[in-house]
Amino acid sequence: MKLLLTLTLMLSSVAFTQPASSGVIRAKDAIAAAHAIKGDAEKERAYVAINANSLQDGTDVVAVYEELDKLPVGVLTRPITPAGNIPSVKHLLDVLADARQPPHHAAVAALLEKENSKLTPKTASDYDRLSRRADRLYALTEAAGLGQNMQALPILRAMRNKGGQSGKYAEAAIARLGVDEDLDKMIEEIKKDPKSLVNLDGFGLKGYQRILKELNDSTLSEDEQNRVAGRFPRVVEREYLPDALALLKHQNPHIADIAANTIGSSVTSDDSDIIRGMLASPNSSIRNKGLLAIDRLWNPIYIEDVLKVLKHDNGWAQSMAAHMLGKHNVKESEAALIDVVNNPDSSDGVRKSAKYALGKMRN
Fold this sequence. Notes:
mainly alpha
């Protein structure tokens, strides 16, 4: 209570202009008031009073940035203590990352330009400065990408071209901006460079559709297709599953496997037909992904499907089926599991999984 009263009184003494009905303390004024507070713990809490709603325009964005820039070198490497200022650093970085609205765009772009200046570390202090700058760059690139800040695109491209960790931050922001020219360039990099680490996730649906187009391009070599397939999203919205399903029949088994992995991670409890179709595939990798989907979504409606795998499949799928029946305590599978244990043709791995399942049921 004493802290809030102190902060309120200090803020009331700071001259600033804001809409009478907003009830929002401007970031630059909150920072000024925080500086006047004595005591690390109290100052810490005052910083936390600054939030994204304080960022009324570019002036406030700059104020938060300058506050981060003033912090002592090495602050991020110190142990966290109740009176330390590391929590406020993290909080102010989060506030800076929320500078997404159009009134903030010019300030974010200008600060990115400033941060992109070259620094060659020579001392431990320089490395600390690099660490602090990397955090500020991450916050600023997040703000640029999530805020669709096209004013920042030129500097983001320059940052990406320079490489390094800040280049990866810039790449993620560029992808979120979704410009076709950048997507074209990244796709070409992926196709040509086996060591490329380009991440297309930020492009969202546009990136997904472009990957599908490339995977169905018969003029690409198998190596190029495999590189592009490596960027296939791990999870997709249910409405986009049909495109992934079509890839299960792709002549390139690597692409079919990647598509199966995405489908298995994306299906929901409403997709029993898709899951059963995967279990019926002649491709063992696709069957395996179907089993993993059943395990993730477990429902008794799949008991007969899993029992069928246990009795008629082999290798990993059979072991996984046995494991699942035990994990989900399917008592009616006991006889089938005993048959697997006693079958001389069962592999050691399958027999071990069946014994595990029986043990789970009997304990």
